[in-house]
Write a structure and sequence with these properties.
single chain; about 400 residues; TIM Barrel; 2 domains; globular
């Protein structure tokens, strides 16, 4: 009798599993929406910044969220239009789990006005939301869907903006980061366009010397320069790299205009300090040109910009093939942080992720379970999807347009 009951229970379990699997296979996209958000950024002394969220809902009520770092007000509104009026009608009713096919479909749709630029933001947000939804439907963290989990935790690189006009404030920030247990710290740019790192050679050297004194020898230190402003040409960049060699920088980020691959190759062949760049790239083709140029050591990838997690996954294959390292350029919301962590967790060539060290609206209000670093690392959560829970009341709070 007990044996019959056992087989009966196993049969019921098998039938239930088959029904659930069939239900998941037939899960359809019910609704896709875009939400343009504006918020004050405390790491930039309250300056208003912008992101666009994508919300994808299935016909059985599951919801996935994604984000793009659209950055400017007009770009954020334009991204909303592409998602609401372009992608939503096209993907509604489709298989919710067929993420790669939807990614190709979106790229085919934007053939005339993409794939670089605002359309890439829209692809990134929707693709990220689809991965979140798929993970929730299958009960798996996204990194396991991307090919497997290689890392249990990722180095959090505390990243903030220099105040080049207030050295004491900047040094106190670095001192506080050390006290918080970070292992890698990054600073750069400046609070005003007229006072950014890279403009004044002696001031720059003095700042880096003082920062290294404050953080000690054991912390790794990254400098971020506004290369798109063409502050340095190649000879100047070589000089500045050599000026800073005594301070043992982990890398110098975007020292030259991002599109000048030839200049990056010249610089890399002449200096010892590694070069980080890539945050301005859009798609697999532009990353291929960057990597093949030979001008980069640390490839920066932002899943909220370069066609989402699907695009990022294709770029990572190029990075791995060239035996380079990559970091995540993630300085927006907790959703992009989540996507970056899963992206990094799935590859042995991962280095670290940008991480906002202070509380901020998009990191600590937007989700009910914000990311927290411990001893300089952020742990990968063993929960389905991206691993964060979006608060829709906060979405409404920061909604504009």
């Amino acid at each position: 009798m007990k044996l019959c009951l056992k087989w009966h229970n196993l049969s019921l379990l098998y039938i239930w599993s088959a029904v659930q699997e069939d239900k998941i296979k037939n899960m359809k996209i019910k609704k896709i929406q875009a939400f343009p958000l504006a918020y004050p950024e405390p790491h930039y002394k309250g300056i208003e910044r912008y992101i666009t969220l994508a919300r994808v809902e299935s016909d059985d009520g599951l919801v996935g969220w994604g984000e793009c770092i659209s950055q400017f007000r007009e770009a954020t509104l334009a991204t909303q239009i592409i998602i609401d009026q372009g992608f939503a009608p096209m993907l509604t009713g489709e298989d919710a789990l067929d993420v790669e096919r939807h990614w190709h479909k979106m790229l085919d749709h934007i053939w005339w006005y993409g794939p670089e630029g605002i359309a890439a933001f829209a692809v990134s947000a929707v693709d990220m939301a689809l991965w979140d939804l798929k993970g929730k439907a299958l009960g798996l963290p996204v990194c396991q869907l991307l090919g497997g989990q290689v890392h249990d935790k990722i180095v959090a690189m505390a990243s903030f903006i220099f105040d080049m006009e207030d050295l004491d404030w900047t040094l106190n920030e670095f001192r506080w980061l050390r006290e918080q247990g970070y292992r890698v710290v990054k600073g750069g740019w400046g609070m005003r366009p007229e006072a950014v790192f890279g403009l004044d050679r002696q001031r720059d050297i003095e700042m880096i010397r003082r920062v290294r004194e404050v953080i000690g020898d054991e912390l790794e230190f990254v400098i971020d320069t506004p290369g798109h402003r063409r502050i340095w040409d190649v000879p100047t960049a070589i000089q500045r790299f050599r000026d800073l060699e005594p301070y043992r920088l982990k890398w110098i980020e975007q020292p030259l205009p991002p599109q000048n691959f030839e200049a990056y190759a010249q610089l890399r062949s002449a200096v010892m300090t590694p070069i980080g760049t890539g945050e301005d790239e859009w798609d697999v083709e532009s990353y291929k040109r960057l990597i093949q140029s030979g001008g980069v050591d640390i490839v920066q990838i932002d899943p909220g910009r370069c066609h989402g997690l699907t695009g990022s996954r294709h770029v990572i294959k190029l990075v791995e093939a060239e035996n380079l390292l990559f970091s995540a350029h993630s300085w927006s919301s907790a959703l992009n942080t989540a996507a970056s962590l899963h992206m990094l967790a799935s590859s042995p060539h991962a280095d670290c992720t940008d991480f906002k060290p202070h509380e901020s609206p998009m990191q600590h209000e937007l989700v009910s379970d914000p990311w927290v670093q411990a001893d300089g690392y952020v742990a990968i959560r063993d929960v389905p999807g991206l691993g964060v829970t979006v608060r829709e009341d906060i979405v409404e709070k920061y909604l504009f347009g």
